[in-house]
Amino acid sequence: MKNITIAIDGFSSTGKSTLAKQLATKLNYIYVDSGAMYRAVTFYAMQNHFISKNEFKIEALIAKLTEINLKFKFNPELGFAEIYLNDVNVEREIRTLAVSELVSSVAEISEVRKMLVEQQQEMGKNKGVVMDGRDIGTVVFPYAELKLFMTASAETRAKRRFDELIEKGDDVQFEEILKNVQHRDHIDTTRDDSPLIKAEDAIEIDNSNLTKTAQFELVYAIVLEKLN
Ligand code: DC
């Protein structure tokens, strides 16, 4: 069977990574969570005191970008690749609300985007990849054979993120998560460099009322058509 590139874009917490992981497992493709890369750079910036809620030393972060080494290593127990920042597994650290609150500001910086887009293109150069993010179908892989654009209401998405964080034992309020989701939607769609937009040839999937299984079946049927 031929290998294709599957680009999944959409708003935060639309279940992109769940779907991407399901597809990668089923097709035996590489799965790349591009958001994890922006989160890891943000975590690096926080650790080095380049960014906080009150200030952002953009030039200082840009000067250190060459010192950021990101790698994905497949974890067979989890069934997907975890992200390593300078050889340290930061999969847990990058999913906190503190990182979520700052990541959109880091993702606005063109130098950061340029560096990460190059790495993403390199990871997908042999096809057989499912990548999710905001600019995968528009910038990273404009020639992807299949592009999906995922949406769901802000409330549905905030509830999903809230449930995830509570399950992990984080102390968070629903209102706080909803505000974060709406704030990130705004920054992600209005930034100058590679804003989140639906590629002309992307298939839109609103999963507000779809179970994970129903969504997977719907998308997998589309994938099979592309493979034939
Ligand atoms: O998918 P996520 O919520 O983990 O992404 C975190 C942030 O990274 C999101 O607010 C926007 C940014 N991002 C981006 O700008 N481009 C991508 N390809 C992926 C994520």
What keywords describe this structure?
228 residues; alpha/beta; Rossmann fold; five-stranded parallel beta sheet; three-stranded antiparallel beta sheet; 9 helices; 17% strand; binds 2'-deoxycytidine-5'-monophosphate
Walk me through the topology.
Elements (H helix, E strand, L loop, with lengths): L4 E6 L5 H12 L2 E4 H14 L10 H7 L5 E6 L4 E6 L2 E2 L7 H11 L2 H14 L5 E5 L2 H5 L5 E6 L2 H14 L6 H17 L12 E4 L5 H16 L1
Parallel strand pairs: 1-6, 1-7, 2-6, 7-8
Antiparallel strand pairs: 3-4, 4-5
Helix pairs in contact: 1-9, 2-4, 2-5, 4-8, 7-8
2'-deoxycytidine-5'-monophosphate binds next to helix 2, helix 4 and helix 8.
Give a quick rundown of the structure.
This protein has 228 residues and is α/β, with parallel strands linked by helices. It has a single domain (5-223), classed as Rossmann fold (3-Layer(aba) Sandwich).
Please, could you describe this protein's structure?
The chain is an alpha/beta fold and 228 residues long. Helix content is 48%, strand content 17%. The chain is built from nine helices and eight strands. A five-stranded parallel sheet has the order 2-6-1-7-8. Strand 3 and strand 4 (80-85) form a beta hairpin. The protein binds 2'-deoxycytidine-5'-monophosphate. 2'-deoxycytidine-5'-monophosphate is lined by residues 12, 34-35, 38-39, 103-104, 107, 133-136, 184, 188.
